[in-house]
């Protein structure tokens, strides 16, 4: 199989939108948007992450939750045609890439001044922080021009031209597989969202108001850059493909006949049971090759799942562990005894919020 680990310059478009955009004049000169974090609870077909449908297009499917861990973007129109990234912005290459992609797609010449940052400090930990920066910047630009791109178009444009930063490289990114979960958390209301095919939302429901998230981060966590993480992940690509192919039929039945009905009726304990199938299908074993502590922690913690804490799992390939619970005090104590760094966040059912 050929390598999908590709480096590129900001603004490169691998997959254009199918329609040509007829852009009107901007409707405002500035936009501020705040977007939530996505918790990737379950990927349906990891084989697709190894062998994409076509370059940059992944039809893996995903169950995601949204949490009130915020990322913001502020975009202003300025004189000239340059893109000016504010000094306070930490992930400048991602911001620049998104702005150029939007500028090329919409076909405008105006200059932009952009500030965008995650308001939490766990990059490459499972929260979709890179995608959150990307979608916040794109939504703010789209808002300035009266939203010429639909949510579905933003999903395709950004997920199919996706890249993350390389440490020490301000003008290079590395391609990373994107299902679109981090984008969907911002673009759509409903804290529980199912994606299928090329980032198509097929079901979304709110998380009940009395439930919130508790997160546990293994103390061994270090924020590797995306290039390092992709090189590590590449070593388990064959295992990911094999595990997915062996379990595809059983997973498809579970998703169709158990997960989707449970989501439709907001039966959180049954949703948690479906998520736990990844402990039996090789996903946990493969992800533990990236984060060695993950296997031990999940074996220890999954036994504490109960009616008040119906979901205990980990996000994406880790290492962030999460619980959806109506009893956060109990979960914090359990996570603390397991030797995790702990923080909490409310569930988010609102998606992106604009102001100003």
Task: Describe, in plain words, how this protein is organized in 3D.
- By secondary structure, the protein is α+β, with helices and mostly antiparallel strands.
- It folds into 2 domains: 7-206, Ribosomal Protein S5, domain 2, CATH 3.30.230; 212-346, GHMP kinase, C-terminal domain (Alpha-Beta Plaits, 2-Layer Sandwich), CATH 3.30.70.890.
- It is 34% helix and 26% strand.
- The chain has helices spanning 47-50, 92-106, 129-144, 151-159, 181-187, 226-234, 237-264, 268-275, 283-288, 293-301, 328-337, and strands at residues 7-8, 30-43, 62-78, 83-85, 111-118, 163-166, 169-175, 192-196, 200-205, 212-218, 311-314, 321-325, 340-346, 353-355.
- The strands form 3 sheets. Strands 2, 3, 4, 5, 8, 9 and 14 form a 7-stranded mixed β-sheet that branches. A 4-stranded antiparallel β-sheet has the order 11-12-10-13.
List the helices and strands and how they pair.
Blueprint: E1 7-8, E2 30-43, H1 47-50, E3 62-78, E4 83-85, H2 92-106, E5 111-118, H3 129-144, H4 151-159, E6 163-166, E7 169-175, H5 181-187, E8 192-196, E9 200-205, E10 212-218, H6 226-234, H7 237-264, H8 268-275, H9 283-288, H10 293-301, E11 311-314, E12 321-325, H11 328-337, E13 340-346, E14 353-355
Parallel strand pairs: 4-5
Antiparallel strand pairs: 1-7, 2-3, 2-14, 3-5, 3-8, 6-7, 8-9, 10-12, 10-13, 11-12
Helix pairs in contact: 2-3, 3-5, 7-8
Q: Would you state the CATH class of the largest domain?
A: Alpha Beta
* Major sheet description: 7 strands, mixed
- How big a fraction of the residues is strand? 25-35%
Q: Which architecture of the largest domain per CATH?
A: 2-Layer Sandwich
